[in-house]
Design brief:
Blueprint lengths: L6 E8 L15 E8 L16 H11 L10 H5 L8 H12 L7 H4 L9
Antiparallel strand pairs: 1-2
Length: about 120
Amino acid sequence: MSGVPAGDYTLTFTVNPQHEGIEAYFYNNTRTVCFKVRDSYVVGDYDDIGAVEILDVSLMQRRLCALTVDVDKKADERGNVDDGDLLITDATWIRRSIAGIEPPLSDREKEPVQGYLNL
């Protein structure tokens, strides 16, 4: 899809809206799909310089500790690797990816640790 501004969209489409021809059910001819169109960027590139580096991890950690703000309102989106909120697990995934450690996160590492602050 091209030429559509970034944003959240809902698309509803109907097949055979005039109910022409023989069908067993006409009521199931409409579908709705929700989708996102995002600006083009490198996932994990928090500072938007075109490459994912350890500096991106440091900037994300500073943001998560409330030491900085998301100035361009897109850095948190670029740093987020799993379509959720920006979390320390995103920074960990990027750090491990840079180091070449696969898989980036085990299932256990994705779960918050009891007794620790869940950002």
